Amino acid sequence: MTAGPVAAASGSAAGPAVVCRNLVHVYGGGAAEVAALRGVELEIARGETLAVLGPSGSGKSTLLWLLAGLARPTAGEVHVDGVDLAPLTAAQLREVRRRRVGVLLQNPARNLLGYATCLDNVRFARGRTRSADAADAADLLDAVGLGDRRNARAGSLSGGEQQRLALTVALVNRPAVLLADEPTSQLDATSAALVVDLMRAAATDGGTTVVVVTHDAEVAEAMSRTVTLSDGRIGRQTRAGRDHVVVGPDGQVHLPPDVLGVLPPGTLLEVDRLPDGVRLRRAAP
Amino acid sequence: MEGVAGRLLRGVRARGATSAIIVLVALVAVAAAVTGPTFATAAERAVLTDTLHEGQPLAQGVEITWQRPAAGLADVTAAVDQARQDSGTPDLFPARIRGQQTSFAPLPYQQAALAWRDGLCDHLRVVTGRCPAAAGEVVVSAATARLDGLTTKSTLAAGKVPLRVVGVYEPREPTERYWGARGYFGQVVSKLQLVDSIDAFFTAPATFEAFGDAPVGTSVYLPLVLDAVTPDRVPALRTAVPRIATSVAPSGGAVVSTLADSLDDAGSSAQVLRVPVALITLQLLVPVWLLLFLAIGDAADARAPDVALSSLRGHSRLRTLVFGLAEPVALLALALPVGLLAGWAATGVLARAALRPGTPVTLPALAVLAGAGALSAGLLAAVLAGWRAVRRPVLEQWRRTPGTRHRRGGLVDVAVLVATAAGVVELYAAGAVGSASTHVLALLVPGLVGLGVAVLATRVLPWACRRAFGPTGRRGGLGPFLAVRQVARRPAALRSVLLLSTSFALATFAIAAWTVTAANTTAVAATRTGATAVLDVAPSPGEDLGATVATLDPGGTSAMAVDVYTDFDQDGRGTVAVDTARFAAVGHWRRDFAAAPLADLLTRLRPGSPEPVRLTGDRVRVRLTGSAASNPAVLRLGLQAGRGHSITPLDVGTVPAAPAGGTVTLEAALPAGPVVLRALTVTVLDPRGGYTPLAPSDGTSDGTPQGTFTLASLETRVGSTWTPVPAGLTGGGPWRITGTPTDVTGGTVAPGPGGLRLGWHTLGGQVGPQITWTANGFPTPLPALVTGDVTAGLASSGGTVAGLDGAQLAVAPVAVTVVPGVRAGGVLVDREYARRAAFDTTFSADHQVWLAGGAVADPQAFARRLASTGVRVLGVRTTADAEGVLRRQGPALASILFVADSGVAALLATVGAIAGLHLAGRRRRYELSALAAAGCRPRTLRASLWLEQLTVLASGLLAGAAAGAVAALLALPAVPEFVELPRQPALLFTPGWGLVLLLLAGVGLATAAAALASGATLVAGVRADQLREAAP
């Protein structure tokens, strides 16, 4: 099996792939309002692989749907591949999804037409049926190790094979950004590893920015950066093995859980200003 | 298969059950829409052909006659051939049958036709001798040969033209079209022109060359090719007859044809079919449309994940819509040709059962359009559902529970109920409900009532189930607990109730209407025919049909001679003369035809009457005694001798009113042949003779001349022997005085031991007053059973009706509602008396032999026995034949179509409901598995499913049946059953509820069995490990 099939076709070569500024999204209305995102600040560079972590209900999937243009932010800005999604019409959002964004869902069956062949699924996603595309689609399937299953019904594939096919389908139009919602949660370890490798290859070889929502620590470690969403805000970030925290719009900083064990809430800290930041340490009693 | 087509096929296969349901429902919708117009087209053709085939020759062709002394055959032939071309439809009149005819008297008191026709010998069976070939040669019928004593050696003369009998014939088919409108055979009489009651003498055409300028009629009959007449050729055919008339007029030809009337009749029957077919088809399409709409909508909703995926991949709205519509539209497209073929085939089956054998069934353009239109509901549903899916956000489509479910508003139901009620009220105002007259819009009542009841049922059922929440929550087990909650909360169950209720309302009404129509058809056919089978016969003059029948059926239980006179001046009313001794066993009678029992009525019809006085011989002699008068007068005695309506007055002689001798004998010559003494007259003259008025009497107190004498004997001479005539002179005779007792000139009659004592009186000053004593051998007035319309007309007709000879006959009416044997009601009398009253002149009447059903298994066999006695049998009709004719008329055909279409719709609704319930059960597999895993026993799960399914199915079926029954009670009297409302008997409108209940019970049992099987199958597939699958 070879890796890395598709190079991203970016609409705007300069600038980050994803930018979120004070992104807010509220569900429901009246007494039943729920603020899923409370001012998310996030930038994702082109070609970066990002894992989004957080407890259930923290807003991870909401963030993904906003990036995919499947929902509209209540407030704030969201830019994908240089395009501000907020003012776009439904047709324009569809166009963004078709050209710039690929989506990979948690349930493999939801990514595919179960009754269609693997080849047909790829062609369906591409939206064209020229014979040249048939050959191209076959190559794509070969690249993910499904060359010999191209005429098999997608519903007859195993979970892992389906997810590999779904990944191919999501990347077929060479999107600038791939959004994946817990893509390995229903897979065994081997299949999960294959999918993760394919996503990384898409980033490194194709330049696709990959955003993965996951609970799986191994998937998170495979990504170049992790962010943790907590209570609708970006809290901890991990980059190149080092923990980072983000200063929120109101100056709040969310410490990682293990740090809280050392500095529990309510701890008085001394702030030492440094040329490139600050140093915090427990204040003397 | 690759690409879009391959994906489409795989998608259809993946959703096999739903796809099959869609194709099935769409196919049935198309077939139902196609069946109506296709059947109507075929029926129109069949009705036209039936009407033409059942008509008389003048309705089946054109007769052209030339009345010049002798129209040259060559000229006539050329004129006719030209006329056929000028008609514009020469292919419909390919043949011509020429003929010539004159009349002559074979015997002094007879008149017969002398004729020839093209192809004559092929239509005669020569029993002795040969067919005529040369001039002057004739063949004579076997009946005439017997009557006149003719053989192949006999010679006759038609005026100065000698004729030689060379053969004796029997006509092969006396009523076949070949003979045209000419009544050549005995009692086969065209009502348009009287023909002598002797069978025709047939000759060779060369015979007529000897007639010179004597009147010889030339005729040509153009028979229509009946089976080639199609509805689209009717307009051309209508103009053909006037064109032929115009074409032959210069040559002196005159056209006679009732073809236009036949075409009108066929058109009327077809018209009566078209509107009901349209109404029936439309009503039945509504539930089918609804089912198709719902099925397609469900199928489109089931594809929501696929549509969401297309949106997710960023496809345009249009592309996504096309993707979402592709499968349902493809299924609809598949259903269209299959449905067209299925509808065509189904119509073929229906046509074979209901229409004239051999009627072609073609697929008209209207049917194809209707079929395509039937799919419009499905197409609409697909577009609406697809558009809805396209517009729905992707995230919403992924939600496990759908968004806000819009409950059906009460306002919608109220609007539907109000519209339904308003519709029924409108129909009531239009006379389509509760009316004594028919109205085709009555066919809309079951649809309206069915829809209203269906809407109510969909409200009542969930309400009733909610009421059951409490009781089922406290006791009864888990099965009922689950069942009532499922029914109350699932809109799919209520949709099934709506469809079932509407469909079964239509089906129940259709079956009820069919039972009513069938019963009325049987009653009308039996009443019109008069008995189980009727032989139309032509007895020879002088033959006693009653005696012949008595010979063949001595017991009097199986056959009866009947004469029927149809009075076309009185709207076709009939005078039916039956053998009252046999009528109860043979004739058709129902208790509701009269208030009194039949036995009583028949007794009243034959009160007893003296025999007529028949005179046979060459001379008659009367002996008078005891003649006395009040003043001098001379009596001129006359006898009126009648043969039929021909009366020959016989001047017997003159005697003084008071002769010197006691006995006076007078004689007179009788006319040749048997005669009946109709009356005795006395003209009182003054002895001074001439025109001297009679002097007043000195011998009476008021001066009226008066006298008496006794008719002591009446004799006739045969050869040299005088024989007394039984004339009832001493008692029991038929003698009546004409006029009233208060007449100025009148008389008395009193039979006594010495003879018939006749008294006369008159006023002085009159010249030759005449007193008449009649000798009628029948009761006057004649007792008769009369229908209401006749009773109403008796006052204006002076209490008379047409007798068997067409002359007015005084009757003593007894009211009945029906007189069997005629279409339009009329009069039923005793045959013997009626024949006497017609003086045996009954050639204007139809002669029949009625056969009882149980006693005569094979009417044809009886007909052969009758023919062997010399009576010519013209045709055999049965009540079953008459029923068949009525069942092939427009309204009856519409009824059959209604039953067939509504049956299919009800079946489809039932199958759809069962399938829908089964599929819904399959979708609840996770829930059932959870219940099983929680310890719920399989039999409890089965009970729950069965209760749920049976509640839904039974509610729909029972609500529909009730609605159909209500609609039947409201509208059946107004539903057209016949092209023309029969004048008798009164139609009954009580449906055959037994059959309806039987069919509904059968459907109910089958449905219940299917539901039980479905529930058992569903539960059998429940496994706890299904919980490992993702929840739906």
Describe the structure.
The complex is a heterodimer of chains A (285) and B (1032). With 285 residues, chain A is α/β, with parallel strands linked by helices. Helices cover 29% and strands 27% of the residues of chain A. In chain A, the strands form 3 sheets. A 7-stranded mixed sheet of chain A has the order 6-7-8-3-9-10-11, with helices on both faces. In chain A, helix 3 (118-126) packs across helix 4 (131-143), helix 3 packs parallel to helix 5 (159-171) and helix 5 (159-171) runs parallel beside helix 6. With 1032 residues, chain B is α+β, with helices and mostly antiparallel strands. Chain B contains 27 helices and 31 strands. In chain B, strand 2 (97-104) and strand 3 form a beta hairpin. In chain B, helix 12 (410-430) runs antiparallel to helix 13 (445-467) and helix 16 runs antiparallel to helix 24 (890-923). At the A-B interface, helix 2 and helix 3 of A face helix 1, helix 7 and helix 11 of B.
